[in-house]
Design a protein that fits this description.
The protein has a single domain, classed as PhyR, sigma-like (SL) domain (Butyryl-CoA Dehydrogenase, subunit A, domain 3), CATH 1.20.140. It is built from 9 helices and no strands. It is mostly helical and 167 residues long. Helices cover 69% and strands 0% of the residues.
């Protein structure tokens, strides 16, 4: 059984949600698994989810929660390496560019929740309230996580603090 509207939403949101989950997790496989799990769970309740004001936000929250739960529970599956390396996109990919960028390495070293806040704020351009909704916390928690993450990045990257900040 397929649901045409679900199929359309899946096709439209899959790439963006995988990019977001990847930015939070730093692991392409984990990102794809998290988004796939989120869509599988959403399929079971699609009638209810499709009637929400913002089904995309709900799916984003589900995917991010999957990433954070995977990290928190440390139950990642370790796959066996194969004789052949995985295929790579020709000419360099976005994944390679992110992996080699100094800022990305610094962001990747942040705790998962801080990284999620920064990705949702600066990559997805969500408001504090939208981030709080996506992460299931209060806007004040979003502010404190963002502040701690930015302070950590400034220290790690030896960047000046903003005028008026005590950090």
């Amino acid at each position: 059984m397929t649901v045409p509207e679900y199929d359309d939403v899946y096709a439209a949101l899959w790439p963006r949600l995988v990019r977001t989950a990847y930015a939070v997790s730093g692991d392409r496989g984990l990102a794809e698994d998290a988004v796939q799990t989120a869509f599988a769970k959403a399929y079971r309740s699609w009638r209810r989810i499709s009637r929400l004001e913002a089904p995309e936000a709900y799916l984003r929250r589900m995917a991010i929660n999957e990433v954070l739960n995977e990290r928190r529970l440390a139950r990642r599956r370790h796959e066996m390496s194969s004789a052949e390396p995985p295929e790579r996109a020709a000419g360099g990919s976005t994944d390679e560019a992110l992996a080699h960028d100094e800022m990305w390495r610094a962001v990747s070293s942040l705790p998962p929740r801080q990284r999620a806040v920064l990705v949702l704020r600066y990559y997805e351009d969500l408001s504090e309230q939208q981030i709080a909704d996506a992460l299931g916390c209060r806007p004040g928690t979003v502010k404190s996580q963002a502040s701690a993450a930015l302070a950590s990045l400034r220290t790690r990257l030896d960047l000046p603090t903003r005028a008026g900040e005590g950090l």
